[in-house]
Design a protein that fits this description.
about 450 residues; mainly alpha
Length: about 450
């Protein structure tokens, strides 16, 4: 493993990560983690690739580096895409694009956006989505790359995008259109001398020649692409090419070569399946955990919302009840005032038919214990009389008289003499009255 290019890159990445971790150099740790993750992804160890992608994401969030955060999301998306979790992959690519959008307008931003649009197109293509949607994302990728100033990187990336757009046209059996894009991809790949660009361009050119039944040309392109793919351990791509070559040689009647490529196909498929099986376990657990967390968060959020709604409803209801209660109390008070006015009017009407009401007359009537004394008193001291008659429990007539006597300033002995009872009886009655009502007999 270490003799391959990804293996060598992996070893260097681990060395850098260890050193950066020792000196707590966060940016170095993130970049090293991304290199390690990409190496493991290339070698099909998706669980470890995801682990380092998560480390990179966590540290990038900590130092608020949008470029590295975008790279971390992108790596996670590529891992999930390879494992056929296309919806999650597309979501991660979306996060990567959002982070990239926060970068300053520069070559780095345009390059990053171009990569992400390509990733999104690949994801849609793998998920068997409409080829028009796939081509649309590839074109957005090409547009982003076209804004770059670095010619070599721009050409390399445009080569990759052109090759992929050509693949879309092959899928739609539009071979002439496919040829335009793929030939352009081959030309740009040769200029840049980029292995990855040459690999993809040759692979898609082989697919185009195969679709056109140009068997010999397809063999040349596939063999060239296989040599590069083997160097980078692109097992899935090699599996596809061995499958196509086996079919081609079978058609050409070369059973020996057909069997050779078929055996290679089985071997590469075995490697791919082992990698996927190994890589699926941890991402699946992570997916379940994330889904559970999201569900719990949703449930908690829904519960909090429900409780908040109930509390709000209760508070609103309490306020409404309080409002109506207050309104009812005010209405009752108004009714009392009306009744009071009516009572006062009746008393005044009745008083008009009797002798004029004045303090001297009331005192005289009281001294004589006249039956009309209490009525005259109620007219003269209406507010006081209303208080003693509105008490609960209500005072009887004799209690009311004693209250009136006291209000007019009579002494207990005088009250006893007028009412023809003992002083102790008057004192006892006054005590009972005070227990029934809380009133001062000196009130005006």
């Amino acid at each position: 493993m270490h003799d391959s290019i990804p293996g060598k890159v992996l070893m260097k990445g681990k060395t850098c990560y260890t050193y950066a971790e020792k000196i707590d150099y966060k940016e170095g740790m993130i970049k090293s983690a991304l290199v390690i993750g990409e190496s493991y992804l290339t070698m099909g160890q998706y669980d470890i690739a995801l682990e380092f992608a998560n480390k990179a994401e966590k540290n990038a969030v900590g130092i608020k580096n949008n470029e590295l955060l975008s790279e971390a999301f992108r790596l996670k998306g590529q891992c999930y895409e390879t494992l056929s979790f296309f919806d999650i992959a597309f979501e991660e690519f979306g996060k990567a694009l959002k982070a990239a959008g926060k970068m300053e307008a520069s070559n780095d931003r345009f390059r990053q956006e171009g990569y992400i649009f390509s990733d999104m197109a690949d994801c849609l293509s793998q998920n068997k989505k409409n080829t028009d949607s796939v081509k649309a994302y590839y074109r957005r990728s090409a547009y982003a790359f076209s804004k770059m100033e670095d010619d070599r990187i721009k050409r390399r990336n445009l080569s990759l995008v052109n090759a992929n757009i050509g693949a879309c046209f092959i899928a739609g059996k539009q071979y002439d259109s496919a040829a335009i894009y793929i030939e352009n991809a081959v030309r740009l790949a040769e200029i840049t001398q980029c292995d990855k660009a040459q690999l993809l361009a040759s692979f898609n050119m082989g697919n185009l020649e195969l679709a056109r039944d140009n068997m010999q040309e397809a063999i040349v392109q596939y063999n060239y692409a296989l040599a590069i793919a083997n160097k980078f351990q692109r097992n899935a791509l090699m599996s596809t090419m061995h499958s196509n070559l086996s079919k081609i040689y079978d058609k050409l009647g070369d059973k020996e070569k057909a069997d050779y490529h078929f055996q290679k196909l089985i071997s590469e498929n075995s490697i791919v399946k082992q990698s996927q099986k190994k890589g699926l376990e941890k991402p699946t657990k992570e997916l379940v955990r994330n889904t559970t967390q999201k569900f719990q968060q949703y449930s908690q959020g829904a519960l909090i919302s429900t409780i908040s709604f109930i509390v709000l409803a209760v508070l609103l209801l309490a306020r409404v009840v309080r409002f109506y209660r207050r309104a009812e109390e005010e209405r009752q008070e108004i009714d009392k005032q009306k009744d009071r006015l009516k009572s006062k009017e009746k008393l005044l009407e009745k008083a008009k038919k009797m002798e004029p009401v004045c303090l001297e007359n009331v005192i005289r009537l009281a001294q004589n214990n006249d039956d009309s004394f209490l009525f005259q008193f109620s007219v003269l001291h209406f507010d006081f009389y209303e208080k003693i008659t509105a008490s609960i429990p209500a005072l009887n007539l004799e209690d009311q008289k004693v209250c009136a006597f006291l209000r007019l300033g009579f002494q207990i002995k005088e009250i006893a003499l007028i009412t023809n009872v003992t002083v102790r009886s008057v004192e006892a009655r006054i005590y009972r009255i005070r227990k029934k009502i809380n009133i001062s007999f000196d009130e005006g």
